[in-house]
Amino acid sequence: MDDNALAPKWFTDTEEGHSEGYVEYIRGLAADGADLAGEARFMDALLPPGSRVIDAGCGPGRVGAVLHQRGHRVVGVDVDPVLIAAAREDYPDVTWLVSDLVDLDLASFGETELFDGAVLAGNVLAFVAPETEVAALRGVGQHLVPGGRAVVGFQTERYSIDEFDAHLAAAGFALEHRFATWDLRPWHDEADFAVSVLIWA
């Protein structure tokens, strides 16, 4: 499939050049030595060594690349071909695919084995098209082994916790843990960020 031919369902009303600018922003942070691996450390601690992991909404690949370096088998997915092209350029040893989470079908790319876990970092679900959150969560969940974990992080001002909890239940997930940050600070109702560990039925 031509990556650029994909008609995304994701909410993408950003200015022209936004994706290119984001790629350069992330590369700049990396060049400056910023810590961009917090989400990957979380997932690495959560999953057994050598797990199969979906980096869902992977962007230019910073999370999946670290998981790969730590010995996990990673498939990164994003609807934006510009971001996927950057991930392929910067981290060519990882599998990066252009696809929408809403109708995700990794078997069509040859990835027929189920995954142990998935990470949706960087406000992924806050950027999907309205009314597709359940479908996006289900699209990821259907690729997980029974009992597989998905970890979802987002700013609560972008996506309310009450909405998210309704959506995760409708998609077939159960909430296992919730934190206020990727470094495991306790959750509280006034937190401006949520990191939720979900279990697939």
List keywords for this structure.
201 residues, alpha/beta, Rossmann fold, seven-stranded mixed beta sheet, 6 helices, globular
Give the gist of this structure.
The protein is an alpha/beta fold and 201 residues long. It is built from 6 helices and 7 strands. Helix content is 30%, strand content 24%.
Structural features, described:
The chain has 201 residues and is α/β, with parallel strands linked by helices. It has one domain (37-200): Rossmann fold (3-Layer(aba) Sandwich). Helices cover 30% and strands 24% of the residues. The chain has helices at 18-31, 38-46, 62-69, 81-90, 133-141, 161-171; strands at residues 52-56, 73-78, 95-98, 115-120, 144-155, 173-179, 193-200. It has a 7-stranded mixed sheet with strand order 3-2-1-4-5-7-6, with helices on both faces. Strand 4 (115-120), helix 5 and strand 5 form a beta-alpha-beta unit.
Label the structural class.
Answer: alpha/beta
Neighbour order of strands in the largest sheet = 3-2-1-4-5-7-6
User: Strand percentage, roughly?
Assistant: 15-25%
Oligomer: single chain
Overall domain count: 1
The CATH homologous superfamily = Vaccinia Virus protein VP39
Architecture per CATH nomenclature, i.e. the level-2 architecture: 3-Layer(aba) Sandwich
Number of strand segments:
7
Report how far the terminal alpha carbons are from each other.
31 Å
CATH fold naming = Rossmann fold
H and E order: HHEHEHEEHEHEE
Catalogue the unreliable spans.
4-13
